[in-house]
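Project outcomes to date are best conveyed with an example. Our students and postdoctoral researchers have been running inverse folding experiments weekly, and each run begins with a structure described purely in tokens. The record below, which covers 243 residues, was selected by the lab manager from last quarter's runs and is presented without edits.
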């Protein structure tokens, strides 16, 4: 038997589903990730909610879970610039793909929900030529942290040295110092400047393009290995950033 649910939620994904329906993925604070079919929910003057908008939604879904049906919704906040500026849209798509990969249904996702709202606010407020900014990289880092996957780069995972990590080993998924990283070990070189700045730089200050690419290359590989799936939105992001 179907039950009725109600919550605010951020539309992370929105795509065509059959003839007159759309498939939505909402991120809600207390019910986690919710997959819905939007049919029969169109407002008199509009259509189902746009991607990257904050809505108050009502839906039905069976007790066993699965795909729900959106029955009513109201717009609470719209991050329109994220859909209008290419680099902002692609960055939003990367965030959405990561958030969908790391969140679960029927799970409290208050922290990820709050970070997502902050992320979209920064994307919507920063001028296009200033993207990416430090705040974007900072929040991408923190979304891993709230799910328990952010390693400490202050010391080597093998010898415990606090001189700082110079490499990240993909075999052990841990940071290593120069001495502990073997010559033939599959590892990513870490930029100590980048690691320090991630948590300290002003959120809207501009990031050097080379530093941003360095971070995004590491982030993509690290996140893909954790969630065990390809994050394809990064391909378009690197094209947009000219990599």
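After processing, the design step wrote out the following sequence:
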């Amino acid at each position: 038997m179907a039950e009725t649910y109600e919550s605010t939620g951020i539309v992370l994904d929105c795509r065509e589903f059959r003839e007159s329906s759309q498939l939505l993925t909402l991120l809600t604070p207390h019910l986690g990730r919710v997959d819905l079919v939007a049919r029969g929910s169109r407002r008199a003057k509009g259509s189902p909610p746009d991607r990257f908008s904050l809505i108050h939604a009502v839906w039905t879904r069976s007790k066993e879970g699965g795909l729900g049906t959106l029955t009513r919704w109201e717009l609470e906040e719209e991050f329109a610039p994220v859909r209008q500026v290419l680099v902002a849209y692609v960055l939003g798509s990367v965030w959405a793909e990561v958030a969908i990969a790391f969140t679960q249904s029927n799970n409290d996702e208050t922290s990820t929900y709050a970070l997502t709202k902050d992320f979209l606010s920064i994307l919507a407020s920063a001028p296009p030529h200033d993207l990416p900014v430090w705040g974007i990289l900072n929040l991408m880092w923190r979304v891993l942290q709230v799910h328990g996957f952010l390693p400490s780069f202050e010391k080597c995972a093998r010898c415990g040295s606090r001189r700082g990590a110079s490499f990240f080993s993909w075999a052990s998924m841990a940071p290593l110092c120069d001495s502990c990283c073997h010559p033939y070990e599959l590892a990513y070189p870490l930029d100590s400047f980048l690691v320090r700045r991630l948590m300290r730089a002003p959120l809207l200050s501009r990031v050097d393009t080379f530093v941003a690419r360095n971070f995004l290359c590491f982030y993509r590989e690290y996140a893909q290995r954790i969630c065990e799936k390809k994050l394809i939105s990064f391909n378009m992001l690197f094209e947009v950033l000219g990599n």
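Residues 31 and 106 are 5 Å apart (CA to CA). The longest strand covers residues 2-17. The training component of this project remains on track.
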